[in-house]
Amino acid sequence: MTDARAAGDLSGATIIAGGRVLDPSRGVDVVADLAIRDGFILGTGDYMGRLDSSAARVIDASGLLVVPGLVDMHTHLFHTVPNPDAWAGENSVPPDAFSFRSGVTTMVDAGSAGWRNFDYFRVTVIERAKTRVFAFVNIASYGMLNDIIEQHAPDFDPDATARAVARNGDVAVGIKSAHYWRPDWASVDRAVDAGEKSKRPVMVDFGYFMKERPYWRLVSEHLRPGDISTHCFRGPVPTADEAGRVYPYLWEARRRGVLFDLGHGGGSFLFRNAVPAFREGFYPDVVSTDLHVQSMNAAMMDMPTTMSKCLALGMPLSEIIAAATFRPARAIGHAELGTLFPGTAADVALFGIRKGTFGFADSVGGRIEGAERFECEMTFRNGTVVWDRNARAASDYRTLPGNAGIREGEYLIPPVS
Hints:
Layout lengths: L13 E10 L4 E10 L2 E6 L11 E4 L4 E4 L1 E6 L28 E11 L3 H9 L5 E7 L8 H5 L6 H10 L4 E7 L7 H13 L3 E4 L9 H8 L5 E2 L18 H9 L2 E2 L10 H9 L13 H4 L6 H10 L4 H8 L1 H6 L16 E14 L5 E15 L2 E5 L29
Parallel strand pairs: 1-4, 1-5, 6-7, 7-8, 8-9, 9-10, 10-11, 11-12
Antiparallel strand pairs: 1-2, 2-3, 5-13, 13-14, 14-15
Helix pairs in contact: 3-4
């Protein structure tokens, strides 16, 4: 396959050569070269066959998977407030410390901030990160500050939440309802109301599962097409019957357009639920980490590990890449991301898939084995190398100029013998 732009000028381009280019957004799966320049994708094709000295750089991607930069749709990033034991605080993480080394170029904060403190979150995190950061605005006014805030229904204000989204329309991609433990539907329904007012999707972390509001009613009656049920393989989610058949309500909710997000986290992904679902082809629409302090060094680890678990469970490779790139991008209203379409931002990730015997854990200590594991080799953000595990973009040190590493005005003065 050759893109229309492949016949153009290559001056100043970077050629990612000879990798397996997998772009589910366009149905592309081919061993080819990918060209980028000035922060944008030029195209896919046989660039090396007509390469000349005008190309700025060639990256050898032989044996590697070349995919769009990953979009992690469920993270917690409001780390700039010193609140102990809170996702709006010390449980959140700095985005740049975890993104690029995992092949992630876009992160979405899942409601750490609410309509009262979203502007502070924006100024202190979103606008300072090199990672592209979007966010859901929590229907709880101060977001995930503490449990009391998330249960205080009088402060679930759809109008104020919608105004916060409008005020931050370039980065606010939806509404979040989370951790609600009362027996009514106040958190969910007011979040949906805010979603209607702001014309944005709603993500629901169902919190404590109550007999008065069963999970099947959430996805069958309360969520709209395009809304997202995160932690879809959490322990209390009724996934399959005793014979291992996925319950019909899940298939029907998917047909209605409800999206199911894996949202691994520290306690929200169980093989007991995932194995029968994956066996029957009920894969998550979106693969995400629910990255935070309590999950980053536990079973979840990172996006490549979470994707590796999906591979071990039998989810096809192209489905995994789709669920980590263009599907979450479309879910948050940014279809220009998660793709290698010519003219889009050159967010690109290169992965090796190691062969061997690997162990993977779920959130409660369950273990499975897999024969393959994703490893991020290289990440480009807007065409700039931001992660390079094996120095593919570096040069032999002997070819560097003699003054490399010496700032103007500094002098290398050898000792007098």
